[in-house]
Design a protein that fits this description.
Structural class: alpha/beta
Bound molecules: ligand T4K
Strand order of the largest sheet: 2-10-9-6-5-3-4
Strand content: 5-15%
Order of helices and strands: HHEHHEHEHEHEHEEEEEHEEHHEEHEHEH
Largest sheet: 7 strands, mixed
Radius of gyration: 23 Å
Helix content: 40-55%
Number of strands: 16
């Protein structure tokens, strides 16, 4: 009898776990997967066997975090790979953004783009800074530099532009405005790993640039991020801020945070870096496939960044114009019915979220371009290893929809 009850209890636990897993799968689970799912992205993962030696070294040293050997090596390797002076690794891009603002002593108001991932602006709120939204340029989908000056007040201390989808902002114009008004510039470069501009790293522009190494990014360390700085003094300040504000074993000089990257993440980054040429060329192949097959479909616009030779092909946004027989959301659903999970990056606009919608700069009148693009954009799947037959499935849905 006891044995019977034990078995029944185990059976109940297994059932509960299955229910929990189903709930955790979230909205993907609501759609009956008829075909192999194709997600907007998949992380690049090298052969697992290649990662074991790194793990063995970590186990042997017992040094698993706090700026160990792999952490130091990854910072040095990224400086070389990216062509930048100083890299400070972080546990993720959001904390890196928050620390970048602290490192430059930013306060008051910061001018930024509403067309981004919510982390961009959340980093301002967490620092007690008021975001001031500025409309975007319809071609680059980045902050429109010619609208920035109108947003400057005596409280403005910085500009926080985003290199959206890895497409460079108008960095030269932004620099001029910043100099004219004595403002700092922090680039949210979460999407811009490896992007060059005028023969050098895009990350060399502005006072600081912030990268994300999240699983969904071109270069990933599972979770991770970095701040790119241009002087040793600034790097030291950033490193101090990400380590609670410690300067030595007993001395804390400011209220820092814990933003450190672990040795496992850093080791994975080092391994990952070896494959970046391959990753870049596979991403470009996917992008070329789309360019070739979607060009000329009435009502589908391919943004200029999709063609740019400097692009890192981190995203593949299309604009579903009103000319297209179905709207963006309907196309999103038609793809989903075929187990193709495109994403509406970035819809809604950040300025539409409850924390921001009451700001005077959030009024739709102020952001007409961002609003229109946000209502029409759809990011198609792009990642290394996405096969031509899967890409063809995506093209087929779009072409079929174009005939509805
Ligand atoms: N600034 C900008 C401009 C950003 O775009 C981001 C992050 C940040 C700052 C902040 O950086 P971090 O603090 O994240 O380092 C994703 C990412 O979570 C986020 O990192 C990213 N931007 C944003 C644009 O996209 P979700 O909620 O759309 O991701 P999720 O989990 O739905 O993943 C998308 C698809 O990727 C999944 O359908 C399947 C695939 N996937 C995802 C994960 C996490 C995998 O195959 N494996 C995975 O492990 O936000």
């Amino acid at each position: 009898m006891v044995r019977y009850l034990q078995l029944a209890y185990i059976g109940l636990q297994i059932y509960a776990l299955e229910v929990k897993n189903k709930v955790n799968l979230g909205w993907h689970n609501e759609i009956k997967m008829k075909k192999k799912p194709i997600y907007v992205t998949q992380p690049y993962l090298p052969d697992l066997n290649l990662f074991y030696p790194y793990l063995e070294a970590i186990w042997k040293s017992k040094n698993i975090t706090n700026g160990g050997v792999f952490h130091q090596k990854l910072e040095a390797s990224l400086c070389e790979y990216l062509g930048v002076q100083h890299v400070s690794l972080f546990c993720n891009g959001t904390i890196a953004l928050m620390v970048a603002l602290q490192a430059l002593g930013i306060s008051g108001e910061v001018i930024t783009s509403p067309y981004s991932f919510v982390a961009t602006t959340n980093s301002l709120l967490w620092n007690g800074i008021t975001p001031v939204f500025c409309d975007i340029d319809p071609i680059s989908m980045n902050i429109d530099p010619f609208k920035i000056e109108k947003a400057v007040t005596n409280k403005t201390s910085a500009i926080l532009p985003v290199h959206c989808y890895g497409t460079p902002c108008n960095v030269e114009e932004i620099q001029k405005i910043a100099e004219n008004h004595g403002l700092k510039v922090i680039y949210d470069a979460a999407h811009a790993f490896g992007v060059e501009f005028k023969g050098q790293s895009l990350l060399n522009y502005g006072d600081l640039s912030v990268l994300s190494f999240h699983a969904t990014k071109v270069f990933n360390t599972f979770e991770g991020g970095a701040i790119i700085s241009h002087s040793l003094e600034m790097k030291k300040r950033i490193d101090q801020l990400k380590n609670f504000g410690f300067v030595d074993e007993l001395t804390v000089v400011e209220s820092g945070i814990n933003g450190k990257m672990s040795e496992v993440n850093a080791a994975f980054g080092l391994l990952q870096l070896k494959s970046m040429q391959e990753v870049a060329s596979q991403r470009k192949m996917v992008s070329d496939f789309y360019n070739f097959n979607l060009e000329g479909i009435n009502g589908i616009e391919l943004p200029a960044g999709n063609y740019s030779s400097a692009s890192n092909h981190s995203y593949y946004p299309i604009i579903v114009k009103s000319l297209f027989p179905v709207g963006r959301d309907k196309l999103y659903e038609l793809l989903q019915e075929q187990s193709i999970f495109s994403r509406r990056y970035f819809h809604p606009l950040i300025s539409d979220f409850p924390m921001y919608k009451n700001l005077s700069s959030s009024t739709p009148k102020n952001l007409p371009v961002a609003k229109q693009i946000s209502d029409q954009v759809l990011c198609l799947p792009i990642y290394p290893g996405l096969e031509n037959k899967d890409l063809q499935r995506i093209i087929d849905v779009i072409k079929k929809a174009s005939l509805l």
